[in-house]
From TrEMBL:
Task performed by this protein: Catalyzes the first step in hexosamine metabolism, converting fructose-6P into glucosamine-6P using glutamine as a nitrogen source.
Keywords recorded for this protein, A-Z: Aminotransferase, Glutamine amidotransferase, Repeat, Transferase
Catalysed reactions, as listed in the record: D-fructose 6-phosphate + L-glutamine = D-glucosamine 6-phosphate + L-glutamate
Source superkingdom: Archaea
Enzyme class: transferase
Keyword Transferase: yes
Annotated organism of origin: Saccharolobus caldissimus
Domain SIS: 37-177, 196-332
Single annotated GO MF: carbohydrate derivative binding
Name of the protein in its database record: Glutamine--fructose-6-phosphate aminotransferase [isomerizing]
Length: 342
């Protein structure tokens, strides 16, 4: 039941803190598997991270974290699995909330034939993808009814941060507070996210820009608003503006900046470029705001938890944009919760 919420999506966003808490406890209780996976990843030649949609964005985020430390992680959109030939020293990480996405299954099948070991991160125990893998990591986000992934995305990010810290032999203590950060962010920003969503609801095109670790979150923000509010949105790394996309910007064009809390001086310049073309700028910032943004949401959080702070905000923005436009966010047209067809 929706327990008093108007939609499952909003209920599930509000369940994100508990989903993250349970997921982290689950990882702590299965430290043995996490350590084995970490060891496999440290030993691997390359780490192929295969996933679709929202799960791909979590995979891209994880790949960026690893690549910054000198690993070779390749984020791979599941339906493009045929583009990579594996060797025995490569390892595959399959990320799938449902554990049933056909494109991910097909990629796993090919990579197994090529001799690679498979690690899976799913939310469904003994799903197909979990069964097919050598190492099974589970989120404990609970069932997600809304078609749009919300609490499962935030839980994927928490799981992958956990795994990353173990790979790097860092303490995971900071993650025990992660659910509190998520809860505070939801409480503190829901009103502003509603305002952002209702403003954006009037638009027909939006850019979502970020830099560094903010890029996958910008991509997720754009996907969500397309998926449930039916507003065309595009995300790209902010530095690319002058290489083409800024040509589209005219007076009133909305640009949402995901200010992850790193590279903020560069992002600030990108914001100025947009404002010089009379764009309307919206920023979502962790710890330090962007100057001169027309609208802003600022949250404070441990910088290692920035992604977990931003995720519920972009989801709430999309939710309130959809509701404002009169659409049912739980049942977006043309979409199924689990994509088991090609
Ligand atoms: C978007 C969304 C989809 C899924 C994608 C993969 O909100 O939910 O993009 O993320 O279909 O699904 P899973 O994670 O089940 O493999």
């Amino acid at each position: 039941s929706k327990e008093g919420y108007t939609h499952f999506m909003l209920k599930e966003i509000h369940e994100s803190p508990i989903a993250v808490k349970d997921t982290i406890s689950g990882f702590l209780n299965d430290m043995e598997t996490v350590k084995e996976v970490a060891e496999e990843i440290r030993r691997a030649n390359r780490i192929i991270v295969i996933a679709a949609g929202t799960s791909y964005h979590a995979g891209l985020y994880f790949s960026l974290l690893l690549n910054r430390k000198g690993y070779t992680a390749i984020p791979l959109i599941a339906s493009e699995y045929y583009n990579i030939k594996l060797s025995k020293n490569d390892i595959v990480l399959a990320i799938s909330q449902s554990g049933e996405t056909l494109d991910v299954k097909m990629g796993i099948k090919k990579f197994k034939e090529e001799g690679a070991k498979i690690v899976s991160l799913t939310n469904v125990i003994e799903s197909h993808i979990a069964r097919e893998s050598n190492y099974k990591l589970y989120m404990r986000a609970g069932p997600e009814i809304g078609v749009a992934a919300t609490k499962t995305f935030t839980s994927q990010l928490a799981s992958l941060l956990f795994l990353y810290s173990v790979i790097e032999r860092e303490s995971v203590d900071y993650l025990e507070k992660a659910h509190e950060v998520v809860r505070n962010v939801i409480t503190e920003t829901e009103g502003l996210a509603k305002k952002f969503g209702e403003e954006l609801a009037k638009k027909s095109n939006i850019y979502y820009l970020g830099r560094g670790l903010g890029v996958p979150l910008a991509m997720e923000g754009a996907l969500k608003i397309k998926e449930i509010a039916y507003i065309h949105a595009e995300a790209y790394p902010a530095g690319e503006s002058k290489h083409g996309p800024i040509a589209l910007v005219e007076k009133g064009f909305p640009v949402v900046f995901i200010n992850y809390g790193e590279l903020d001086d560069e992002l600030e310049k990108n914001l100025q470029e947009m404002k010089a073309r009379f764009a309307i700028t919206y920023s979502i910032s962790v710890n330090k705001k962007l100057n001169f943004s027309d609208f802003e949401i600022l949250v404070n959080a441990d910088e290692r938890l920035s992604a977990l702070a931003i995720a519920p905000i972009i989801q709430m923005i999309a939710y309130y944009a959809a509701v404002k436009r009169g659409y049912d966010p739980d049942k977006p047209r043309n979409l199924a919760k689990t994509v088991t067809v090609e």
